[in-house]
User: Which sequence fits this backbone?
């Protein structure tokens, strides 16, 4: 008996210009205890499907046809009260941003109590402690506020609420996309255990094929509102039927495959960038001990030859701080930063600015919404006195072509471009200025999976064809291995390991590196992962 | 375009149109005392009636609307200019500059504005002019804009495009005027209108208390004369209804424009529709 059956579901947004279909002809079924991965890139309709199942579609979105049956009961056309009674009790939801899902003014116990009481279930201290224990949290967490918990703990609280009424179906919408790999593995293990204990069905929504391979029994791949492929996880990964599925699987970087390392640096190369005992402490405290350093006596050398140095670490490891210091946006609390043998402070600002450029993580905020995107490229050309007018335009168009973009995109506004296009434009901007060093801080973490490999290849191109060194900052060991000539593993401001990626990642000497390596989800359904937390 | 903004602009436009038409058709010298018979109801010669000092109310209202608008615009513009400058200094510079400015705003915001204005304005008994009054009101008009715009700049300062602009070699001034200001425009527009509105309210308050310019027939002074000459007791209804109607239209119009611009500047309100 299936828990959930979706028949020919059609969801559309009724706009003034006509109906926009978000999901078409979708049929799925899910048995008790089964885990289904719903995979797709942004705009594929995966979240819309989940919202339709929970009756949370907002106008102008509407179910235009088909059936959604939960334990045989058709949900299409139920009124709001019926859906409200059904949510949490029979269909529970684990949201994407656990950071914002909990009410900041309520203690954890109150958040859980509210959820239970709304459905007329008793909520006493024992019940709450029991729920928290089921997600691996101590009873003391009940008295805390959300801001006192880490991201992983908050997501566990969300899971505790989701399982509190023993739902038949759990929908987890990218539950770990805001967490780093180590926490992601722990949270997924918790979620799986809780679901196994209840025997409920689960839909895991996401875009990471690696995570799917490690967590689900069956995979459904969606693209542009259509189901592209559906099947058991081993079959899908070993013999994908749709080319798109194969492309998604290939786009997951795997350590040991397809490395793009450059040539070895000449032994006698001078330094391009050197950190000497750099320390960084944020804030000052009048009372009590000084704050723990974000960076602890860091030494780092980048030779004056085209190289890619990958800096890897969890959130809070200090990797972004290194990037900001290298860009001169942040002055270290102690230690020296040398740029081509000169102290950073003594380098003429205009020269240094041109020689060190950046690509940042968030492709949505890096363009000023007021201007067409060409503005972001023309300003540095004018400021650094490189080109103006027609010459500038020609340079901009040339570098757009070099990164595989149509130059006509320059006349659009940022909100008209996809995340991948914006990141490519940022690489084009860097390329055009011919810096000596590019700081790329998580350049692909907010970009759709199929675009990631292409953007990383562009970084490799910068090194090989244009002789630009790259500081590649990431939490993802696999991509760090793929493009890096050297790797540096950071843990809480300390360097735990550094050297040639092949040696560091194939034979890690430090247990922290091993922990990171074990936590990476890989596109291999046979690897034990979330069960071994 | 949203309906509130349109309605507000239409209302304010109507007032401007009436004032311009009036300025062309009415002899503005009749706004002085003893230009006509006293306390006459509307008639062919004085279409809006006259007051107890023999001013032609049609001329008074045309001159008064323009003078009141002048006080509001002058005080409001000074308030926004000073407020924006302080806000950028505080938010962009940070550190002790921010602490001093924020502290001053926090403290001054708790002071009842009209009380301070009454004390200051009473330092010039009988010598008050509209320009002087605008300057007095401007003394306190920068507090709200400073706080509001500082908050906006603090958010914008962390935006990716501001960091990118620094990497593009833009200096602080270029970042403020080329990168931040354009995005702040709808917000500054709304802040300006609400600042003008607050300044007009303050000026009418001062005038109704008798601290306004006695030689200039602003809308607030008309209210003052109307109260002190006992228009209510004597049943001179036209003298009461006319200035009050214009003031209400003025405030409702500006309120609608502020709400409309807010919707424009604040995407969260826009999506709530």
Assistant:
């Amino acid at each position: 008996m299936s828990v959930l059956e979706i028949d020919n579901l059609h969801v559309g947004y009724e706009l003034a210009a006509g109906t926009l279909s978000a999901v078409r002809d979708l049929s799925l079924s899910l048995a008790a205890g089964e885990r289904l991965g719903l995979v797709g890139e942004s705009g594929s309709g995966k979240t819309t499907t989940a919202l339709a199942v929970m009756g949370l579609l907002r106008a102008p979105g509407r179910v235009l046809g088909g059936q959604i049956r939960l334990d045989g009961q058709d949900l299409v056309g139920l009124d709001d009260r019926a859906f409200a009674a059904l949510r949490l009790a029979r269909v529970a939801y684990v949201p994407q941003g656990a950071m914002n899902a909990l009410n900041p003014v309520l203690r954890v116990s109150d958040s859980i109590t509210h959820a239970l009481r709304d459905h007329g279930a008793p909520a006493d201290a024992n019940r709450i402690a029991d729920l928290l224990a089921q997600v691996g949290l101590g009873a003391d967490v009940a008295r805390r506020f959300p801001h006192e918990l880490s991201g992983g703990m908050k997501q566990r609280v969300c899971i505790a609420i989701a399982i509190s009424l023993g739902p038949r179906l759990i929908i987890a919408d990218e539950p770990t996309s805001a967490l780093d790999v180590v926490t992601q593995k722990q949270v997924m293990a918790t979620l799986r255990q809780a679901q196994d204990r209840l025997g409920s069905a689960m839909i895991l929504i996401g875009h990471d094929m690696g995570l799917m391979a490690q967590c689900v029994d069956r995979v459904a791949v969606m693209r542009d509102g259509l189901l592209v492929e559906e099947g058991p996880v081993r079959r899908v990964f070993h013999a994908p039927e749709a080319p798109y599925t194969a492309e998604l699987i290939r786009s997951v970087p795997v350590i040991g495959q397809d490395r793009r390392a450059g040539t070895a640096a000449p032994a006698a190369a001078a330094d391009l960038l050197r950190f000497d005992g750099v320390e960084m402490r944020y804030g000052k405290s009048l009372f009590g001990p000084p704050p723990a350093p974000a960076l602890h006596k860091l030494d780092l050398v980048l030779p004056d030859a085209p190289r890619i140095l990958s800096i890897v670490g969890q959130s809070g490891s200090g990797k972004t701080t290194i990037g900001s210091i290298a860009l001169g946006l942040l002055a270290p609390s102690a230690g020296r930063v040398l740029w081509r043998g000169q102290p950073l402070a003594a380098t003429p600002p205009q020269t240094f600015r041109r020689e060190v450029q950046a690509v940042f993580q968030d492709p949505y905020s890096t363009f000023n919404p007021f201007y067409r995107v060409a503005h972001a490229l023309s300003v540095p050309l004018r400021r650094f006195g490189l080109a103006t007018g027609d010459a500038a335009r020609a340079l901009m168009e040339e570098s757009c072509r070099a990164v595989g973009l149509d130059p006509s995109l320059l006349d659009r506004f940022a909100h008209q471009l996809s995340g991948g296009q914006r990141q490519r434009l940022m690489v084009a901007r860097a390329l055009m200025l011919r810096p000596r060093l590019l700081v790329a801080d998580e350049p692909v973490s907010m970009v759709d999976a199929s675009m990631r490999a292409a953007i990383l290849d562009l970084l490799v191109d910068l090194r090989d064809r244009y002789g630009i060194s790259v500081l590649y900052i990431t939490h993802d060991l696999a991509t760090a291995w793929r493009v890096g000539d050297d790797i540096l593993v950071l843990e809480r401001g300390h360097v735990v390991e550094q050297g040639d990626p092949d040696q560091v990642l194939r034979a890690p000497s430090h247990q922290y590196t091993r922990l990171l390596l074990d936590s990476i989800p890989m596109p291999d359904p046979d690897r034990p992962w979330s069960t071994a937390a | 375009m949203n309906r509130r903004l349109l309605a507000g602009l239409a209302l304010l436009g109507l007032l401007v149109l009436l004032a311009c038409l009036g300025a062309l058709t009415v002899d503005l010298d009749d706004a002085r005392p003893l230009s006509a018979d006293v306390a006459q109801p509307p008639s062919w010669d004085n279409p809006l009636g006259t007051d107890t000092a023999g001013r032609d109310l049609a001329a008074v209202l045309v001159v008064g609307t323009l003078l009141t608008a002048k006080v509001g615009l002058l005080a409001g513009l000074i308030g926004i200019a000073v407020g924006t400058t302080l806000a950028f200094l505080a938010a962009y510079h940070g550190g002790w500059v921010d602490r001093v400015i924020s502290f001053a705003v926090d403290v001054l915001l708790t002071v009842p504005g009209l009380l301070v204005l009454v004390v200051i304005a009473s330092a010039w008994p009988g010598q008050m002019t509209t320009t002087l009054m605008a300057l007095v009101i401007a003394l306190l008009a920068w507090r709200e804009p400073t706080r509001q715009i500082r908050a906006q700049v603090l958010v914008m300062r962390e935006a990716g495009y501001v960091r990118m602009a620094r990497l593009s070699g833009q200096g602080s001034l270029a970042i403020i005027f080329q990168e931040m200001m354009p995005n702040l425009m709808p917000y500054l527009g709304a802040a300006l209108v609400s600042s003008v509105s607050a300044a007009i309210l303050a000026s009418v308050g001062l005038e109704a208390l008798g601290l306004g310019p006695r030689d200039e027939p602003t809308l607030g002074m008309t209210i003052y004369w109307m109260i002190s000459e006992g228009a209510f007791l004597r049943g001179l209804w036209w003298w009461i209804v006319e200035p009050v109607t214009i003031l209400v239209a003025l405030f409702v119009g500006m309120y609608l424009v502020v709400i409309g611009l807010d919707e424009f500047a604040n995407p969260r309100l826009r999506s709530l529709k």
